[in-house]
Design brief:
The chain is an alpha/beta fold. The longest helix has 17 residues. The two termini are 15 Å apart. The protein binds 2'-deoxycytidine-5'-monophosphate. 2'-deoxycytidine-5'-monophosphate (DC) binds next to α2, α4 and α9.
């Protein structure tokens, strides 16, 4: 076993707007672990593609963009080259584009090394769609966080309004359903619970309750390690 493999990883996967970002981030803070928002890497690639007007079916050009992504994470701020893109990557257009390009195997492949690099001592909480199935299959703890499509649309609506983006509930529900369909049915690394994952339905839970549950599961894993 290499040294990296002994660094604990908590993999938190789930559909868009399931609250996994908030939960994963808070769990990381509580444990003093690093945090990987893998969706941000797909969003950064999407933003870069939109900015460079790269066709969304040009897998070769998109994977080159992903491979050489000049990104930097500083606290909760995300940079692409010299630009702070923390807000820009959260726009719905960028999310939808990210979901489309994420179905391309070479784009996914180009982002693997970057994701593995986040596994640093004392540990990592990784949030995404394939953290427990593909990127960190030997994670100490795997969680599949979900919520009803209505609860997720409501959360996304609030998030967008809070950030000053326009939002429309009907369109959001439609987009979420389409994105779920695309993320779950793609040929490569589809969204599904990893083997041995604990499923957590957060439709009627606060973020703090979800965090509490994940921490309890992790404490139990550590006790038996
Ligand atoms: O979690 P998010 O909404 O920020 O992710 C944006 C898109 O990126 C999502 O629709 C699917 C894709 N994605 C992925 O395919 N694999 C990941 N590990 C994370 C995100």
């Amino acid at each position: 076993m290499t040294q990296t493999n002994t660094i604990p990883v908590i993999a938190i996967d789930g559909p868009t707007a399931s609250g996994k970002g908030t939960v994963a981030h808070r769990v990381a803070l509580k444990l003093g672990f690093h945090y990987l928002d893998s969706g941000a890497l797909y969003r950064l690639t999407a933003l870069s593609a939109l900015r460079h007007q790269v066709a969304l079916n040009d897998e070769h050009a998109l994977s080159k963009l992903a491979e050489r992504l000049p990104c930097r994470f500083a606290g909760d701020q995300v940079w692409l080259a010299n630009e702070n893109v923390t807000a820009a990557i959260r726009a719905e257009e960028v999310g939808n584009t990210a979901s489309k390009i994420a179905s391309l195997p070479n784009v996914r492949h180009a982002l693997v090394g970057l994701q593995l690099g986040f596994r640093q001592p004392p540990g990592l909480v990784a949030d995404g769609r394939d953290m427990g199935t593909v990127i960190f299959p030997h994670a100490s703890l795997k969680v599949f966080l979900t919520a009803s499509v209505e609860a997720r649309a409501e959360r996304r609506y609030k998030q967008l309004i809070d950030k000053g983006f326009p939002a429309n509930m009907t369109n959001l529900l439609k987009d979420l359903k389409e994105r779920d369909e695309r993320d779950s049915n793609r040929a490569v690394a589809p969204l599904k619970p990893a083997e041995g994952a604990h499923t957590l339905d957060t439709s009627r839970m606060t973020a703090d309750e979800a965090v509490e549950q994940v921490l309890k599961w992790y404490a139990a894993v550590r006790k038996h390690a």
